[in-house]
TrEMBL record, chains A, B:
It comes from the Bacteria. The keyword Oxidoreductase applies. Belongs to the acyl-CoA dehydrogenase family. Residues 281-443 form the Acyl-CoA dehydrogenase/oxidase C-terminal domain. This is Acyl-CoA dehydrogenase.
Amino acid sequence: MLVNQKDLNFLLYQVFNANELTELPHYQEHDQTTFDEVIKTAHRIAEDYFAPHNRKADEREPQFNGETVSTIPEVKEAYKHYADAGLLNARQEYQDGGMQLPALVHAAYSGLFASANPSTAGYTFLTSAAANVIHAFGSEEQKSRFLPGMWDGRFAGTMALTEPDVGSSLGDLATKATKQSDGTYKLKGQKMFISGGDQDITENIVHLVLARAEGAPQGVKGISLFIAPKFLINENGELGERNDVQLAGLLHKMGYRGTTSTVLNFGEQGKCTGYLIGEEGKGLSYMFKMMNEARIGVGLGAAMIGYRGYLESLEYAKNRPQGRHPSTKSNDSKPINIIEHADVKRMLLAQKSYVEGSLALCLFASRLVDEQEAANNEDSALLLDLLTPVVKSFPSSYGLKANELAIQVLGGSGYIREYPVEQCYRDNRLNPIHEGTHGIQSLDLLGRKLWMKGGKGLQLLLTRVNKTLKNCQTHDALKPLVDSYRNKLDIFSKTTMQLGQSLQAGKVDETLANSALYLDMMGKMVVAWLWLEMANKAQEVFEESASEDDKNFLTGKLQACKYFIEWELGEVHSQSTLLTELNSTCADMEEAWF
Amino acid sequence: MLVNQKDLNFLLYQVFNANELTELPHYQEHDQTTFDEVIKTAHRIAEDYFAPHNRKADEREPQFNGETVSTIPEVKEAYKHYADAGLLNARQEYQDGGMQLPALVHAAYSGLFASANPSTAGYTFLTSAAANVIHAFGSEEQKSRFLPGMWDGRFAGTMALTEPDVGSSLGDLATKATKQSDGTYKLKGQKMFISGGDQDITENIVHLVLARAEGAPQGVKGISLFIAPKFLINENGELGERNDVQLAGLLHKMGYRGTTSTVLNFGEQGKCTGYLIGEEGKGLSYMFKMMNEARIGVGLGAAMIGYRGYLESLEYAKNRPQGRHPSTKSNDSKPINIIEHADVKRMLLAQKSYVEGSLALCLFASRLVDEQEAANNEDSALLLDLLTPVVKSFPSSYGLKANELAIQVLGGSGYIREYPVEQCYRDNRLNPIHEGTHGIQSLDLLGRKLWMKGGKGLQLLLTRVNKTLKNCQTHDALKPLVDSYRNKLDIFSKTTMQLGQSLQAGKVDETLANSALYLDMMGKMVVAWLWLEMANKAQEVFEESASEDDKNFLTGKLQACKYFIEWELGEVHSQSTLLTELNSTCADMEEAWF
């Protein structure tokens, strides 16, 4: 099972009210039926063409013989089915051949692929994201040259940022771009950790490359963005000669093995043609359009790999008899299924709270994308900007924790490749790293995002939170949870304010030293809020719901909310203490003392 | 590097005073020189014969062709060097050809092998442990038949407990033993997850098998322990005919791949000869001798895999330039090494506190073994019994957390197999599972160990803790840490008392429902105490220490203690609340609500 369909519907149509989006002019042709149809189609493709080779792609990772890369044939087939269903450009406008689908619905179906097979899904996500950048910032000529192939599945896309000596510190990147008389550029440099940087799935690969034009300043302001395809494309749209982009080698990951991770040499023979996107020096801002989408995508992927592991371990626990309750002294009775053991319930409930909470967070972020793009809602844009580090990192941390618990539920079976959860754990370990590590996200959050426009983003968040709290007050079952949450919210708000003051007082390094702790605290507060929102909605619809099944599902939502607030927010107090005292124990540690 | 040698010496000779052991008659032939010699030899063998194939054994895991298992030849060679150095039976008495080495020193050198190559080391540990059981409980004939080969490296040993349908619930195991007229037994049944159950490293394998003799009662009281060698051994000590123990298949683990994990069929053809150890029905108590040693061994292995990852990430952080401090706005300055980033320091300091704390815990437990065995100290035996679940589980949890952080320090490089830390992470994930999961350890601790002999074990622990606190009070630098620790200790003690009362009131299932939380809390309290003990010793020797290097090392100890108490004990308060209120959120969760 890729997701609990009941949960996905609950989130889409009750918590995040996807139907409301169809009132916007941009989405007016849609209704719940068209949304469901797309999701159903995606579900079928994910189950039929992605899930079946998830293990195989892990066992038989892509090979490089010095000339070409080979992947198992199932990947190419899956990619084709994905493209043929119109899923690569589903969010594009009708006039461009798209379905004009909301980001919320797009996220819902994307998640199914991440659950089924994150490695193969990786190629599709990268292509859509790269195409979006070209669509948003490319010239008409660039669009007409590259987008048709990217959207119909003949081409794939990559984002080539990282360099071996530079890592995440993009301001230092050294790839050079030299302008030619015809307006094109010659690129020269090496990029590393480029996902999908080479493969045999598509006939062409469109690399988006960050490079520094000759004479451009040091730092991020000197960075430009270029298109460097593997094969040049002729005027008539046909593939032309091979561009000077060479695969230097594959990197061999712990998980996510099906997606190639590459070292690429651009212009080793001085012949790598690159096409400037937009203006020189604005490369990073264009790339961040893609990065922000990619960060939501990473969060969603992490949530869904976590979700998959949760479902696998739940299924196992329901069917595995072993042991008895501690109070049962004799071995005469039959063993109980392990789902009856309190500690197994804890591990399942924790997983449920992490992964359903993470999915809710990513869908919420996607809804904000819709509000921003289709309704021009600036508040939504600001809130999304604030929350992006959280959306990227909370699911990456807690989805992985969920996978760790899934292994533990299965015990010895969880640790062997004969069962699926160990792969989830290996795959998911990538997510706290790529598209900006936790450390980078936390600096972005505490050093920048919180204070944009005078801290308005946080105000917008708190307004929404308070609205939820008010709604929850009407349900007796939720009152103790609201009280407990309010207490933590107060601590969180005061902590934030104090950190802001200390930044204003110029204590930049001291305040940001423990930013990772702040990121974790804020992640828990945001997800706990979403759990209250879910619990509130569950209470609202409980009476109307006809079936016993539905009632059980809604009761589970309430219980998971209870768990998350009682068990996971306990740390907020001690985290706040460390943060507000600007605890310097870590920062004070000197290299020689280790 | 396998360990920080300065740290190992500090722990052995200053914190745990290994020299004091030489005052015991059993160890009187030893002195620090002999201890150091053994450790030095072990270090050399670990570096020369174990570390070099750690990655290779992971990449080329053992293969089963339906007839025989093949491992890479380096494993056999390493095993031989280990045996030839007398390390398999180093703890045995001189009269048996051993070195009569203290458990403390044995743990110190064993840890080096776990750091270098946990998979290959696994074979040696299993053999020593199985031999110990035969030595302790076997008949003279059994000893003379099996021990020489196990001690000189011709034979290996296993512990065959788990069965496919039974898992950890040993009381339900179904393997049968039928007594024959000659006093031997015929065994019949299937065992699963048997480490080293087959291999091509040694000429024979001595399986210790739990089985139920015909007519024996259900439950744990009906379990007996048998020796079932792969090859029978003739009177003259030579290998005889093949016993009916068949490899049904290999299991394919996520990590620890070099150690075979097997499914074994005993007596498929009705011809599996087993020799009863000791008396019928006492099998579990014999096996627990081995299990308790194995549990300390698991803790030690987890600590040392964590330690290895820590050292690798420390080395990387010292040499990898990337980025600048947040307050540095321009890119004109040179990038700093990442060890200068506060968040990287945090990840390194956390690792240091986990792994050095875990190693201290395991060495402490080993010293208790010495006090128990060589000094007949019943208090030490009781304290060891109490702490065994903690010794097994704290390093398994926190060593793994350390490995997770090691990956994060390396970023993208941490996630690829071109660097060593991802293997540490995969290897270490086994440790929270085997030899009793966290859940099982926590039930053992809270349901049984704490209350043995009227709770005397805990009293013994608290007496030691209070002594440390008193010593620490004499150092100004430690006073705030002592105050903070005392506050948590008070909470911990009250929590324990309340749980004891609630067990006495018959609320067994309710009290044990959250036992995993208690296990974590107690683990942190015990390790924080050991950190104070280390910090106290560091303060004591600081003035006498001559070199700048030593002073830096001792300052680092103090800082890690500070970190552990300030950053890791914060949760104790909220954990205590959940425990004392007998929080039932997890236990109340019904299967249908998931």
